Amino acid sequence: MIEREEMPFDVVIVGGGPAGLATAIRLKQVDPELQVVVLEKGSEIGAHILSGATVDPKALDELLPTWREDGCPLAETPVTDNWHWHLTKKGKFSLPHLIQPPFMSNHGNYTGSLGNLCRWLAEKAEELEVEIFPGFPAAEVLYDDNGAVIGVQTGDMGVDREGNPKDDFQPGMNLLGKYTVFCEGARGHLTKRLKAKYDLEADCQPQIYGLGIKELWDIDPDKHVPGRVIHTQGWPLSENDAWGGGFLYHQANGQVALGFVTALDYKNPYIYPFEEFQRWKTHPEIKAILEGGKRVAYGARAINEGGWQSVPQLAFPGGVLAGCSAGFVNVPRIKGTHTAMKSGMLAAESIAAAIKAGREQDALMEYDAAVRDSWIAKELKLVQNAEPMVAKWGGEMGTILAGADMWLRTLFGFGLAKPMKHHTDASNTQRADLYKPIEYPKPDGVISFDRLTSVSYSFTNHEEEQPCHLKLKDPTVPTEINLPVYAGPEARYCPAGVYEFVDPDGTGERLQINAQNCVHCKTCDIKDPTQNIEWVTPEGGGGPNYPNM
User: Fold this and answer.
1) Cα 389–chain centre separation
2) Has 183 been annotated as catalytic?
3) Are 34 and 140 in contact (CB under 8 A)?
4) Is the CA virtual torsion 258, 543, 522, 40 positive or negative?
5) Which of 15, 139, 264, 383 can bridge 155 by disulfide, Cβ–Cβ 3.0-4.6 Å?
6) Rounded CA separation 101/509 (Å)
7) Considering 23, 43, 180, 337, which one is annotated as catalytic?
8) What is the pLDDT of residue 390?
C-alpha cells in the first residue's frame, strides 16, 4: 500500500481554466479565511488553454471590475469590427448584421489569448492567497463511506510503462476538501465518472462536441487590423454534408488567431477535420490575409456544443460541476468563457455560504438552482435549438431556421420548436461503404501543412517511460470493427496523429498509439464509433505547452 500525503483544504478546485480560477477568486472575495487550492494538469497555468478567443467581458466585469486598468492582457484589443462570411469554394458573401439577433454582435467584446487571461487571473488568485499547483493532475476522485466526494488524488510521478515505480517515483497526494469543484474543461475524465456514478445526465440530452483546431500567425503588418473579427461558414465542410466554421481574429502584436471547428456529429467517416482546416486556409479570402506571414503555434481542443438541453445536474454529494465540465458554451456566439466564469462564481458563493453554515460534503442543489435562475440560463435558452437545427437541416437551411428560432425567442419568448434532442457524436458515424474516400490536397508548406509538423508547433511533450494514457477497452476492436466497418476513423479524427494503422511485418494491420503526440483534445474519447477509447490524464506537466493561445 502506497503511503500518500494528505492535505486538507476547505475547497479543492480541479482545473486552472477560467471557471476554476473564477471560482477561487470569488471564494476568497466572499471569505478570505477559506483555504482554497487549484490543481492544474498543465506545466503552468495557461499551458493547456486554447480558445479563439473573442470574449464577452460580462463575467469578468462582475468578478474584477477594474480589470481593464489592472494590466489584464485581454484589455489590449477590443473588437473594432465584425464580419460573418458564408464561403463558397472561390468566393464569399457577407451575412448582414441586421438579420442577426442583437446578442450576436461583438460590440463591447475583446479578442486575445485565453491562456494569457488565465495566467493573469492566476496572479489575481495568488494575491488573494489561493494555492495553485500546476503540473498536478487530479487522477482519481476520493469518496467517503457514504459515497460523497471528499477530494481528489493527484497522479503518481515516475512510473514506467508497465506501471512500476522508477527511481524517481513520487506518489500522488490526497487533497481533501469540504467541497470539490470540477472544472476540467470539455470531456474531463473525472467528470465522465461523476456523471455515471451519480446519474447526472438522467434528465438532459447527451453532450455533443465540435473539434476546434487553431493556429497562431504573425502576419504582414499592412494586413493587420487590430480588433477585426471574422467568422465563416459553408465551404469546405458543405462539400461533405458536414458543418462547422472558421474564425480569424486580429489580435495584439501583429498576430492573428485562426482556426476551424468541425462538428463531431458528422456521418462520413472519411472526413478529416485537420485537412478540412488546412483546406479552409487555401480559400482566396483567407489565403490573402496569411500570405507573407508565418505560423508560430498550433493546437486543438474539443468544444461543448450541446447547449442548454445538455446541461446535467450540477451538484452531487461533496462536489459540483462548473465551466465546460458542465457545458455552458453558447455555440452561435462561439463563446463560453463568460458563462464558465459565471458558473464558477455562483459555485463559489454557494460553497462559501454552505461552509459558513457548518455544512460539508452534501449536495449543493442551491448552486444548481442558482445557475438555472441566472443569465447563463437566459442566454443559453435563446440559442438552444441553433445547433440541432443546423445538424438536422444542413448549413444553409439550418442557419435560416436557427436564425428565425433565435429571433422568436428573443422577441416573444418562444421558438419554432421545443428544445430539440441530440444523438451522441459517436453514434452518428456511419459505415465507410456508404461513402467515397475524400481526396485532400497536399500541403504546400507555406499556407497549409502536414499534421505531424503541425504538432511540433504545439510544443507537446510527455515523459516517454510512463503508462499510455489512451486506454483501449478491447484491443481487438480497432482492427476487427473500426478498420473494416468505418475505415479506421481514428487515423483521421485525431488532430495530432496519435493513432495510425501500421503493418510493419506484413502480418496484418494493427493500431499504433503515439501517445507522446497527444494534445489532450479528447476527440478520440468522443468520436470513436465503438466508444472503445478512454482518455485519462497522463503524468503531470505532460501535453501541450501553448504560448499565447
Assistant:
1) 22
2) no
3) no
4) negative
5) 139
6) 52
7) 337
8) 86
What does the longest C-alpha to C-alpha distance in the chain come to? 68
For residue 477, give the C-alpha cell: 476492436
- Residue 428 has a CB neighbour count (10 Å cut-off) of 17
The question of whether 324 is a catalytic residue gets the answer: no
pTM of the predicted model as reported, rounded to 2 decimal places: 0.96
494 is catalytic: yes
Is residue 468 among the annotated active site residues? no
Quick one: pLDDT at residue 52?
85
CA dihedral for 145, 14, 343, 265, sign (positive or negative): negative
Query: Average pLDDT for consecutive 10-residue bins of the chain (549 residues)?
Result: 92 98 98 98 96 95 97 97 94 86 90 97 98 97 97 94 89 97 97 98 97 98 97 93 94 97 97 98 98 98 96 98 97 95 98 98 98 97 91 83 89 89 95 97 97 97 92 97 97 97 90 96 98 95 94
Q: Which residues pair with 263 in a beta bridge?
A: 210
Helix (H, G, I), strand (E, B) or coil at 395: helix
Tell me the CATH class for 6-66+115-206+308-382.
Answer: alpha beta
Query: For this structure, is 337 an active site residue?
Result: yes
Catalytic residue among 187, 301, 333, 409: 301
What's the rounded Cα separation, in Å, for the pair 283 and 72?
34
DSSP codes of every residue in 367-378? HHHHHHTSHHHH
